[in-house]
Amino acid sequence: MKKRIILFVSVAIVLLIVFPIHAVEVCNVPPPDDPGPYHIGYYKVSYVVPPYGRYWAMMRYPATRDGWFAPKDASGAPYPGIVVANGLAGSEWNIKWIPKHLTSYGYVTICFTPPHKLSGDTTQWAYGFKGGIEKLKSQSSMWFSPISGMVDVETFGGIGLSMGGGGCIEATGAPNSEIDAAVPLAPAGSDAAKDAARNITVPTQLQVGNNDGMVPPEHVVPFYTDFIPETSVKEYLSVTGGNHIGFIDDFVARIAEWLGLDNPRGIEFAEQRRVSRKYFTAWFQYHLKGLDEYYTYIFGEEAQNDLDAGILSDLRYNPP
Predict the structure, then answer these.
(1) How much of the chain is in helix, strand and coil states, percent to nearest 5?
(2) pTM (2 d.p.)
(3) pLDDT digit string, tens, across residues 31-72
(4) Of 135, 124, 210, which is closest to residue 168 (Cα–Cα)?
């Protein structure tokens, strides 16, 4: 009898130790659509990339408080760098929800505006990504910079919308690319982007709204099915009710909606941004920081739940 009691107590202790600790670890991971734990400091920069010219950009970094040139928070440094880009006729200030959210999760971000915003040349955006990475590295290397020593100069991500999405693909598939994980949002399907996609070897997540009237899903899914190699880690998702302008900040999106520039949306703009940031944040957390807890949000049960619930109208992936 005594041996049975000892065995029972031993098993109970093991169960109490193993399973509660695992549960706590999962619960302590912030849902990736919620704001992250870091404050956000920011300042303006610019850089020149021939032959296109000067790119203006906003740098954001983990800080001890929110604000312009706020003191840096180096508690988790060095942080991966992420370059962010808007699309045709857009500026960095009307897609700021993306870098702000990512910075709150412990990334140094640079969001750029290309010199020629009305150009149909995705290579201009691709050069912006390359120049943005160089700017992150140079700013981190200068002792007097607000982000001195803050950037992990071996780890970079890229995310862009529309023309910025096409440029993101082109930059990711370029020879000697330094992008380690990419998220093109409703990417423009230029020939240069399609050619570059065939050379992509790093994890790439494609997003689109199923109501997009500018870059519809049938223009995006071939990047997943036909261009990005089957040997690469990749994902394609379509947000139910989302459209093209739903990926930009609310104020500009509502103006574009009033002008009739896109198909009608089927969900609120805020909901589209919530779903989008859930997936791109988990993508970068898993692939740039190696946080296994985020696997479920992109390849596992959480992602499948969104598909079953109709939050996503399509979900395809080729996991690691």
Answers:
(1) 40, 25, 35
(2) 0.91
(3) 999 999 999 999 999 999 999 999 999 999 999 999 999 999
(4) 124
